[in-house]
Structure formats: C-alpha cells, structure tokens
Specification:
This protein has 14 helices and 15 strands. Strands 14-13-12-11-7-10-9-8-15 form a nine-stranded mixed beta sheet, with helices on both faces. It has a six-stranded parallel beta sheet with strand order 3-2-1-4-5-6, with helices on both faces. It has two domains: 138 residues, Rossmann fold, CATH 3.40.50; 272 residues, 2-Layer Sandwich (Dihydrodipicolinate Reductase, domain 2), CATH 3.30.360. Strand 13 and strand 14 form a beta hairpin. It has 479 residues and is α/β, with parallel strands linked by helices. The chain binds 6-O-phosphono-beta-D-glucopyranose.
Length: 479
Amino acid sequence: IPVQPFDLVVFGGTGDLARRKILPALFRRYCAGQMGDAARVIGAARAEMDDTAYRDFVRGAITEFGADTACAPDQLEAFLGQIGYVTLDAQGAQGWDALKARLGDADRIRAFYFSVGPGLFADLAARIETHGLAGPDTRVVVEKPFGRDLASARSLNADLAKHFDETQIYRIDHYLGKETVQNLMAIRFGNMLFEPLWNSQYVDHIQITVAESGGVGSRGDYYDKAGAMRDMMQNHIMQLLCLTAMEPPAKYDPHAVRDEKLKVIRALGPVEPGDVVRGQYEGTDSLPGYLEEVGDDSSRTESFVALKARIGNWRWAGTPFYLRTGKRLRARASEIAVVFKDAPHSIFGADAGRHRNILTIRLQPNEGIEMGVTIKEPGPGGMRLVDVPLDMTFSEALGPEAGDIPDAYERLIMDVIRGDQTLFMRGDEVEAAWEWTDPIIEAWDAPGAEPCPYATGSSGPDDALALMHRDGRRWREIR
Ligand code: BG6
C-alpha cells in the first residue's frame, strides 16, 4: 500500500548513513510500490553538487548497498527522477532559500532527516523554523547517538522542543525496526503460552547477547569516544531489555508501548561496579587490535561490556538480566535467552541430571525461536533425560512467499511518513536510559579501571564468564 505523497529532506545526504542505509531503503520501498511516484527525496549537504551529480551518487549507493532482485532495472532510473539535491550550510544561510523553493508550498507530508552529528541538531531545527519550512505535517528524524550522557541528551531534547512538538520528533534506534525485535512483542503478547510464565516465579534469569564479529574498522574516531556502553548498551540493548521485560501495553500504540518501556528503565537498579566487565579486543597475526585500530595506545574505551542488571518491580525482582555486547567476538549472533527455573521436584532422581527449559529468540542471523524441551533419551537404559530443541526458523515457517526480511530502515522511514511513533524513542525514554548508564560509565574514570583484554574470535574476557559463574550460571555459547 503506498504511503501518502511526501517530501523527505535528508540532511547529511552525502554521508555514510545516507549511502549505506537511507537511500537503499527508500529505493527498496519504491520498488515495493510503497514510496509512490509522487514522493520526492532531497539530499542536502555542504558539498557543491547539482541534481545530476547527486543522482550519480545515489545510483552508486544503490548499486553498492541496495542490490535487490525484486527491482526491475528501469525502476532505478525512475526512482532517481524523484531525487534532487540542494547545497546547504546547516550553520549558515547558504541553501535555505533554495530548499524552500524546492519544497514549494504543496500541502504534503514533509520529513527532515537529520543524518548528521548531534552537534548540528539545534542549528537545523532552528533554521527549519526561521525559514518557514515547518508546518503541522512536518516531522524530524534524528539519529543516534542521542547525546553522550544525561546532560547532553536533555539539552538536545530541549533544543528540539523549542521548534517541534514531541509528536513530530522521531528518534531512531534501528533495532526497533528489525523484524525480529518487533516479533518479541508478537511472541509475548500474541500467544497465551508464554506470558503466564514470564516472571520471576518461573524465570531464573534472562541473557541478552548482541555479539559482532567485526571490529571498529573505519569508525574508530567516533567509536573511541563512545565505546560499547554508549554505542550499544544505552540504546539497542536497552530497547531489547525493555521489550523483554515490560508489562503488556493496553494497545499497540506509541503512548502505551513507550509508557511501558519507560517504566522498565525507571525500575532498573543501579549496577554495582563488581557487576560490570568491560573489555578491549586484541589483534591477531592478520588483524589489528583495538588500540591499533583507533590509533591510540592509551585508549581505555571498551569494545565489549557485560553486566548484570536488576529490575526492581514485582514481575522481575530476583530474576537478573545479564546483558553483553562486543566487537570481534566469535560470531555475529544476537539473541535473547529466557532461562526457566528447574522443575520443583525431580521424580526421576539424581541420575536424571539437571534440565532446564530455555526459550531462545534469535534476533540475527538465522532469525527464529528455539525452545529447549526435556524428553526421554531413547533406549532401554532406564529413565534418562535429554534436552532437545523445538526449533523454528522464521523464514522456513513462513515460507518463501513471506519474502526477504526488510531492512530496519525501510520500516522506520515508512513509519515516519505514516506518522507512527511506536517504534521510535520518546525523549523521556532516552533520558531515563542515560540516567541509568551515566554512573556505570563515570565509575570507569577512576584510576586503575582498565578494560580487560580479550582475544579476537573469543567470547569476550574471562571476567565476563566469571560474572555468571559466581552466580552458578553460564553464558550461552556465541555461535
Ligand atoms: C550501530 C552501532 O548502531 O549498530 C554499531 O553504532 C553496530 O557499532 C551496529 O555495529 C549494529 O547493528 P546491526 O544492525 O548490524 O546489528
């Protein structure tokens, strides 16, 4: 179903995110018939370029990052016909009149995508208003990182609030656009099976892992100032935690869903310094280590973090959430594992061993759900038990007609046009997440607090394993 006609201005239109994600996502939505022939996309950046040169840039981006067999070859040229470019200075006067002339005064949905560093958000927001570019159907989309601590997030929120209403602000966390992340809500609240057991009475603990096999690569400049805690934990993992732990919202709408997520963040207890482990990857014969990659021998930035979080509410008191994320780990594998408690009494005696149900939601790759079920080991040897997986891979279960999983940005950009904020972070939610994160990061400023080295291709530092061992638990293997 096509969305209504819209104009989308991409500030930072020549940047990396536009090239890798935003433009290819728009193209795929165009091919799917959703973007519609009346939509216009206007790239805006400092580079001097005309429409033709920008279209060449977009063609290159799509060839590199948007190859899609569902698109007919002539669709690319038709899509490019809907793209324009304005040379613009976010902090000066250049280009704004030209942008205004381009937009005209058509009564259409207008979205401004701030695909730039947060340092420019305030300038852009102010100029959109002073040049009279905003109307009631105007939305602004802002990318992470949304600040680097509570104070900076508050000030970004305040800057945006001077010019836009909260209902016009779309803060992106691309994890919320992932199909499997949305599936978390479908699994929890679309089935009767899970929710009655989804609490501390039945759940021993929950593990959330977002493991990456790649290193920081060319993003060292940004990453070294952020680290895993700011880059992944405060946002992506926090969102996974919220969707896993929240109460059922009364309906699937932006207010109800975000209210429930916010309650989870506010219920998070402080994390004791002994409950956090951070690490930094070492190099191999062929790959540089973290310090080498960022070009700073003295960097104490973490490329891995694992911690034990506690949620102080009736549902979760006593059930810890172990969270971990890192780069250069054994595999790219993200999952949420709900580890249930032991059965209260084993009728099979001690020989049967210890068996636990584990529900694993695989977020990527190989998206699916696996439920570990205990059954009898076949054979005449008595009543011996064995754990087997009830395994469902979504692509197999849904069949080929379900198509490829769309990229998160496709879903999120279309939601902006539709005016649906459910999968975007509200200002108070982002601030609450920083409020919880800040003391953890501040504790690392203390002298002597160094990240532990870990080998490329491992599961992270040994101390992270110890974090669970001392509680009589263990991490699931990263594979
Ligand atoms: C980004 C982080 O937000 O998410 C990156 O800045 C990280 O460091 C990326 O690699 C992971 O996203 P995905 O979609 O590949 O899991």
